[in-house]
Design goal:
This protein is of the alpha/beta class and 465 residues long. The chain folds into two domains: 371 residues, Alkaline Phosphatase, subunit A; 61 residues. 32% of the residues lie in helices and 12% in strands. The chain has 13 helices and 14 strands. An eight-stranded mixed sheet has the order 6-5-7-1-8-11-4-12, with helices on both faces. A two-stranded antiparallel ribbon has the order 2-3. α5 runs parallel beside α13 and α7 runs antiparallel to α8. It starts with a helix and ends in a 12-residue tail after the last strand. The relative contact order is 0.22.
């Protein structure tokens, strides 16, 4: 379809037809990616987002020989992999270090949460570098949205599901988590807090008096009402089309019992739910495993829904990784014990079920923390913390052919800058598509047929060597 053809189409019905034609434009086949290590090893990808900027020095890259003002109050412990150290507040993960790999030289130039989260989830810098912009319809799409555009699944009603979301920065949803210029139809399915007794997805409980035939009749009535409004104002039509996408997804969920059951955490043994932790991130990780098992190609866990730390919240359940002050109290008593519990449970559970072999697990934040402990007077708190730092930080990968127990890249002696080859968020997104068997150097088309690179990065193939 070219512009001349577009002009020949008259009226709203013609434009609707054009939109449907362009939605079906396939991805462009490209290079020799299939011959590279790790290509196509994953059936699913599971992202765990440490919203707020997880400190590399207090987690994946401790520096026990650095000066006290750099290394901080925590120690370092040996792991199951000789020579690899983790924070002493991650004992369970230290025992599992032979099941994952750490990339210690992720680096970029964005120093604020909103735009850096956007970068992490899209692989593209935001137009407003180091800022907290709201989501916009012209944003680059989330990696799960691109995946739906390139290769939508038929195994589940949704190609991408975001749990414990959307991620807040700090009180409003941050950019990069949505369909962007691809439209609402390409948003991930967003599920909020799943740690309560309420159903994770309200409205999925079947009504006995409403069988499949009656639901079909209601869907047909809804379609006829929408068709009768096709000639109304464009602004209204846009909202109507967004609602049509949501209605279609909801009807599909209702008609597929196996999809509804995937959200039923009460089907899990009580002991396993306790192992994950009865808190928001723990139960979100458990639901993520269930969705991977159900066939969702990309599952994202917003490990903490808000990025802000204790300076804005009294409830530890609300604490994020933005630990400008009181970093050792907040991380030592709250964040790291929960993270060690839930992330280790996720890896063990996936492995014991044989799912880790076909699932790429990626744990990342939008950046790390500064290699200097200092009190920031502009933030609440009585003891020092660490500022934002993007010059180097760590991202963890596991499963789907990733080498067990390796460390890719080395930071300098203060975990401040890369000492070896550095990588960037766009390389992480390229690795995700590569693992799913999609060439990141290929293209997809937006709804007006303009081509876009799937990813500007290159897969981190060192993870597979």
């Amino acid at each position: 379809m070219i512009r001349r053809d577009c002009l020949r189409l008259a009226g709203g019905a013609g434009l609707t037809f054009l939109g449907e034609v362009l939605r079906q434009r396939p991805v462009c086949a490209e290079s020799d990616a299939a011959g590279r290590p790790g290509f196509g090893k994953a059936k699913s990808v599971l992202l765990v987002i440490a919203n707020g900027g997880q400190s590399q020095l207090e987690s994946w890259d401790p520096k026990p020989d650095a000066p006290a003002e750099v290394r901080g109050e925590f120690g370092a412990i040996q792991t199951a992999v000789p020579g690899t150290l983790l924070s002493d507040r991650l004992p369970r993960l230290a025992k599992l270090a032979d099941r994952f790999s750490i990339v210690r030289t992720i680096s970029h130039e964005d120093l604020d949460h909103g735009s850096a989260l956007y970068l992490s989830l899209t692989g593209e810098y935001h137009q407003r570098l180091s800022s907290n912009p709201p989501p916009r319809p012209v944003d680059q799409p989330f990696v799960g949205s691109v995946l739906k555009r390139v290769r939508p699944t038929d195994r589940f009603p949704h190609t991408s599901v975001l749990i414990n979301g959307p991620g807040l920065v700090p009180w409003e949803p941050g950019p990069g988590q949505f369909g962007g210029f691809l439209g609402k139809d390409f948003d991930p399915m967003i599920v909020g807090d799943v740690s309560t007794d309420r159903p994770p997805v309200p409205g999925l409980t079947p009504i006995d008096a409403l069988d499949s035939a009656r639901r079909s009749e209601r869907a047909a009535l809804l379609t006829s009402l929408e068709d009768s409004g096709a000639s109304v104002a464009t602004s209204y039509s846009s909202r109507m089309f967004d609602m049509q996408a949501l209605y279609r997804q909801a009807f599909e969920m209702l008609d597929r019992p196996e999809a509804r059951d995937a959200f039923s955490l009460d089907q899990e043994p009580a002991a396993l739910r306790e192992r994950y932790g009865r808190h928001r991130p723990g139960q979100a990780c458990l639901l993520a495993r269930r969705l991977v098992e159900a066939g969702v190609p990309l599952v994202t866990v917003m490990w903490n829904h808000s990025n802000r730390g204790q300076d804005r919240y009294d409830d530890p359940e609300e604490f994020g990784w933005d630990t400008h002050n009181d970093i050792f109290q907040v991380m030592g008593r709250h964040l790291l014990p929960k993270f060690d519990q839930s992330f280790s449970a996720l890896l063990e559970d996936l492995d014991s079920r044989g799912l880790l072999e076909e699932t790429l697990v990626v744990c990342l934040g939008e950046f790390g923390r500064a290699p200097l402990v200092a009190l920031e007077p502009r933030f609440a708190g009585a003891t020092p913390g660490r500022k934002h730092w993007a010059a180097t930080y760590s991202v963890v990968f596991a499963g789907a052919g990733v080498t067990h127990g390796s460390v890719v890249g080395q930071s300098d002696r203060h975990a401040a800058f890369p000492a070896t080859t550095k990588f960037a968020p766009w390389d992480v997104t390229a690795t995700i598509f590569h693992a799913l068997g999609i060439d990141p150097a290929g293209h997809y088309r937006d709804l007006t047929s303009r081509p876009y690179l799937i990813s500007k990065g290159r897969p981190i193939t060192q993870l597979y060597s």
